[in-house]
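Minutes, project check-in
Item: structure for the 288-residue chain
Input as provided by the requester:
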Amino acid sequence: MRQWWWVLALMCVRLLSHAGAVSAAPTGQYIAEGVSALVQYDYAAARERALQNAFREALEDAVGDMTEPRALTRSLQSLRTRLYTKPLQYIVSYRVLWEYPDPPQKVYRVGIEAEILVQDVSRVVDSLGITRRQDARRLAIFMAERYPGQTSQTFAASRGIVAEVLRRELQAQGVRVLALDPGRLWDGQETSALAVSKQLEVKIVLVGWAQVQLAPYEAARAPGGAMQAIVDVKALATDGSGQIAQAQVDAVVPFTEREQGEVQALSQAAIDVAARLLPALTAYRSGR
């Protein structure tokens, strides 16, 4: 009996020592959104998959903050094997910020705030020989989009057409963009976008609006009609430096189907906006 109690006490000491070591290790807070297909209205299964995707997205954000984009791209397979398949090994805790089914898109969305063991992640990155990032330009996008027939704007980010295209174009050029839906965190005001971005510890925030409508005949010059998208975006520094850049684009795209024309027009405008903002974003250095 005494030997059994001695073994139990020894195990407790080891567990407490491990917990103390984990709590003392450097951690970082990351907000991420996970999305999963909603199959046969099985909300529980879709939620679980979305949660797992959110864990992985948070871990990818942590890795992206540490590494040079081109080196990261070359090492994706190694990272999948060593890190991304078991994200919970590097997450100390998390809390769900939002979750809801998105029937129009046939998906379930879960937003989390995860506390990640960045020191452990950093060791894996170094062991794989991935080049470290010299200047991590973390950026968040807050867009309000209005579509034909809507009387109010829709706050969107990773699920908005313009924001998704902006994110894709900027990430391709080495700008680290957070993937999240700030519709749950943002009330549409520029000042609140800055406040939320500071909480997310990003350096730059893009705030803007977009709308799409049937183009006037003079602008369309197409027998079948066209869609007109107007996108206006400001780049603001979260350190108080003010506006870095601004771009407004008016794109007109002929269409055969209305919804397809909306997407094409918004996408083209967003591509042009990203190209105009990129020089200022890449030249910006925090504190200057």
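Outcome recorded: Residues 1-24 have pLDDT under 50 and may be disordered.
No further action items on this chain.
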